[in-house]
Design brief:
By secondary structure, this protein is of the alpha/beta class. Helix content is about 35%, strand content about 25%. It has one domain (about 5-240): Rossmann fold. The chain has helices at about 45-55, 75-80, 100-105, 115-125, 130, 145-155, 175-190, 200-205, 225-230, 230-240; strands at about 5-15, 20-30, 35-40, 60-65, 70, 85, 160-165, 190-195, 210-215, 215-225. A 6-stranded mixed beta sheet has the order 6-7-8-3-9-10, sandwiched between helices. The chain has a 4-stranded antiparallel beta sheet with strand order 2-1-4-5, covered by helices on one side. The radius of gyration is 18 Å and the shape is globular.
Amino acid sequence: MATNKHLLEIVGLAVNYGHIRAVHQLDLTIQQGEIVALIGANGAGKSTTLLAVSGLLKPSAGTILFEGKDVGRLRPQEIVQHGLIQVPEGRAILTTLTVLENLELGAYSRKNRREAAQDLEVVLDRFPILRERGDLPAGNLSGGEQQMLAIGRALMGRPRLLLLDEPSMGLAPLVVQGIFEILQEINKTGTSILLVEQNARQALRVANRGYVLETGKIVLSDTASNLLENQKVIDAYLGGGKDCCSVD
């Protein structure tokens, strides 16, 4: 049963690609106001987990509860309307549309257009470069600017939980630092965040808690500060080792 303190509760999640099981019996919780990091090697099942939570992949087993409601069999657009919104890996902006048109698409399911217009101003205040380039094709933006656009588009849906898949991918270190500062600012406004990120050190620095995923299974969970000091995590993700977290 879900408890009131959990914004998101995943119990026994399994996801298959055909006959291949990509995620096995995954349990994960997020409380209101948290940033939770999900880290692991390429192919560990991190993105698959996000796709299942956002309805883009159907679970083979398990339960996904959002604010106590089972959303595991809902369509993606219905999940968005519940306030659970994903910023996909690779950003997935529409490059031939303008920056403003991309942002407006983020509010496509909202009925109150006045509130949506007000939120657009909030997003443009948070990302001044998007206001400056609002009439340009989104494909003209740099990688970092496109990531800001993808985050801004998600914010236009008024998320209660923001799912981010590899927001630092392909970006320069200084740009990455700026993106993570923005995520912390968003979190301070009350938006919870589930963060999938290959840059484990950066993710754990901003997170409250973290989960380590290995070959589709959660093998370790703890506070982010403890994970930053865990020798197995250091060896595998922070210091150059190859194996992580298997219990002897």
